[in-house]
Design goal:
Elements lengths: L15 H17 L3 E2 L5 E3 H8 L4 H6 L1 E4 L5 E4 L4 H10 L2 H4 L3 E10 L11 E10 L4 H17 L5 E7 L6 H14 L6 H9 L10 H6 L12 H16 L4 E3 L11 E9 L7 E7 L3 H4 L7 E7 H7 L4 H4 L5 E5 L2 H16 L4 E3 L6 H10 L4 E5 L1 H6 L1 E6 L5 E5 L3 H11 L1
Parallel strand pairs: 1-5, 7-8, 12-13, 12-14
Antiparallel strand pairs: 2-4, 3-4, 5-6, 6-11, 7-9, 9-10, 10-11, 14-15, 15-16
Helix pairs in contact: 6-10
The chain binds adenosine-5'-triphosphate (ATP) and magnesium ion (MG).
Length: 419
C-alpha cells in the first residue's frame, strides 16, 4: 500500500470541520479589518525565496523543496507567503493605484524540517500583510487582530511577545556589540550558533537550545541601541498596545535574522503548546519591497500557524460536523425512484438528505439512518404510495406524522426548517 510522504498529512472529515470553522472566523475578522484576499501560486522561482528569506537562513539553506523543472529552471515549493505577496504587489504595480494595501492569504507551505509534534513538512498558514504604512499603528493593528482572533477561537493563555529590531542606522552598532559578546561566550554555543555567530549573529538570540539560551542571558539588548526615531516608534507601539488592552511582554531575544526587517517584530505565544510555543509570528520588513525591485515602500505582516491553531482552539470539530437533516428510507422500485428525486430536490433546497443507494431492507436502511444520526427519517413503500402519504419521523422526539406525497419536498422543507 502506498503511504503518504513523511511529514505530510491528510485532514479527514471529522477533523476538517474544525479547519473550516477556524478559517471562517479568521476570514471574517480579516475582512472586517479591511484585508483583501490574494491568492498566490504554491511554486515560485527559487531565486525569489533565496533573495527574500535570505541565503543564510535554515529555510533556504536546508529546508526548501527545490528542484529543476523539465527545462532546468530551479523552482521551489513556497516555504512562506510573504515573498510571493511582495512579488505580486510589485509585478502588478498594485502600489501605483494606492501604496496602502492590506492583503491576506490562507494556504499550504512546505519546509523539509524534522517532523515532530506541531511540525510538519506541509503545513498551513494564515498570512496578513499591510503595505505602505510606516507608522507603528499598522503593527499594533496586526497584533490586536491576532489577539482578537485567538480570543474568538478560545485559545487559552496567549501573550504577545514584542521587540524592536531598530533600523539600518541603529542596528550595525548593536550587531557589533552582539558579535563582541558572542566571541566571549563562543565555547558555550551549539554548533549551529557557532556558524550563525559570524554569518548572522542576530539569529543566535533566537536559538532554542537550552545551553545557548543560558549563555545568552547577559547578551546586550537591542533596545539599548535604538536611535531616537526607532525608540519613539517602539514606545508608541507599547503605548498603543496598552490603550487597546493587549497583554504583551518585551522580549529582547525575539528577532528575525535579515537586514530588511526593521523595528517592531512580534510573536504570539501560548503556554499550552510545549516546545513549539509560537502560534504566530510577524513584524515589519521595510526594506523588502525595494530589495525585490519595487519602490521604497514599508510593510509589515504576520503568519499564523494554522495547524497549531487547530490544536489550540477551544472549538471542537463535532460542533461543526454536519449530520443529515433527513434520511429517506424507501421500499420497492417505484418508491426508491421517487425517494431519489426528493433527495436531489432537497439537496438543492439546502437540506442534506440521504438515501440508501442499494435497495436494502427497511431494517438495514433504518440502521444506516441511525448510524448517520439523521435528524428525521422519511419512510415510503408501496402502502404509502397507495395512500398517497409518506411517514415522517422525528428521530429525537420519535414523533411521527403523515406527509402527502404530492408537494412533499416543500412540506418536508417547511417542517425541517421550522425545527
Ligand atoms: P518556529 O520557531 O516554530 O520554527 P518559524 O519562525 O519558523 O517558527 P514562521 O516562519 O514565523 O515560523 O511561521 C509562522 C508560524 O508558522 C509559526 O509561528 C508556526 O506556528 C507555524 N509554523 C512554522 N513552521 C511550521 C511547521 N513546520 N509546521 C507547522 N507549523 C509551522
Ligand atoms: Mg522554523
Amino acid at each position: 500500500m502506498i503511504q503518504l510522504i513523511r511529514g505530510f498529512k491528510d485532514i479527514l472529515p471529522g477533523e476538517v470541520e474544525l479547519w473550516q470553522a477556524v478559517e471562517t472566523v479568521a476570514r471574517e475578522l480579516l475582512e472586517d479589518f479591511g484585508f483583501k484576499e490574494i491568492r498566490i501560486p504554491v511554486m515560485e522561482r527559487t531565486e525569489l525565496f533565496a533573495r527574500s528569506i535570505g541565503e543564510d537562513t535554515d529555510i533556504v539553506e536546508k529546508e526548501m523543496y527545490t528542484f529543476p523543472d523539465r527545462k532546468g529552471d530551479l523552482i521551489t515549493l513556497r516555504p512562506e507567503a510573504t515573498a510571493s505577496i511582495v512579488r505580486s504587489y510589485i509585478q502588478h504595480r498594485l502600489h501605483a493605484k494606492d501604496p496602502v494595501q492590506k492583503f491576506y492569504t490562507i494556504g499550504p507551505m512546505f519546509r523539509r524540517e524534522r517532523p515532530q509534534k506541531g511540525r510538519y513538512r506541509q503545513f498551513y498558514q494564515i498570512n496578513a500583510e499591510i503595505f505602505g504604512v510606516q507608522s507603528g499603528l499598522a503593527d499594533v493593528q496586526l497584533i490586536y487582530l491576532l489577539v482578537t482572533l485567538f480570543g474568538r477561537l478560545k485559545v487559552a493563555d496567549v501573550k504577545a511577545h514584542i521587540n524592536s529590531l531598530g533600523c539600518v542606522r541603529c542596528r550595525p552598532k548593536f550587531k557589533a556589540a552582539l558579535s563582541k559578546f558572542l566571541e566571549s561566550i563562543s565555547d558555550q554555543l551549539c554548533a549551529n550558533c557557532k556558524r550563525r555567530k559570524d554569518r548572522n549573529p542576530l539569529r543566535v538570540l533566537d536559538c532554542k537550545v537550552p545551553a545557548c539560551r543560558a549563555a545568552m542571558a547577559d547578551a546586550p539588548s537591542i533596545i539599548d541601541y535604538l536611535d531616537p526615531e526607532c525608540k519613539a516608534d517602539f514606545d508608541e507601539v507599547q503605548r498603543l498596545l496598552q490603550v487597546l488592552k493587549v497583554p504583551f511582554v518585551v522580549d529582547k531575544n525575539l528577532v528575525r535574522g535579515l537586514d530588511y526587517y526593521a523595528r517592531t517584530t512580534f510573536e504570539i505565544q501560548t503556554e499550552s503548546l510545549g516546545a513549539q510555543n509560537a502560534v504566530a509570528g510577524g513584524g515589519r520588513y521595510d526594506g523588502l519591497v525595494s530589495e525585490l525591485g519595487g519602490p521604497d515602500i514599508p510593510a509589515t505582516g504576520f503568519a499564523i500557524g494554522f495547524d497549531r491553531l487547530t490544536e489550540l482552539t477551544g472549538l471542537k470539530a463535532d460542533q461543526f460536523y454536519r449530520k443529515p437533516d433527513i434520511f429517506v428510507a424507501a421500499l420497492g422500485e417505484k418508491s426508491r425512484l421517487l425517494a431519489f428525486e426528493w433527495v436531489c430536490a432537497l439537496g438543492d433546497e439546502g437540506i442534506n438528505a440521504e438515501l440508501d443507494f442499494g435497495g436494502k431492507s427497511l431494517k438495514s436502511q433504518m440502521k444506516r439512518a441511525d448510524r448517520l444520526a439523521a435528524a428525521h427519517v422519511l419512510i415510503v413503500g408501496d402502502d404509502e404510495l397507495k395512500k398517497g402519504e409518506a411517514i415522517l419521523r422525528n428521530m429525537e422526539t420519535k414523533e411521527q406524522v403523515s406527509v402527502p406525497i404530492n408537494g412533499l419536498v416543500e412540506i418536508v422543507k417547511g417542517k425541517i426548517i421550522k425545527k
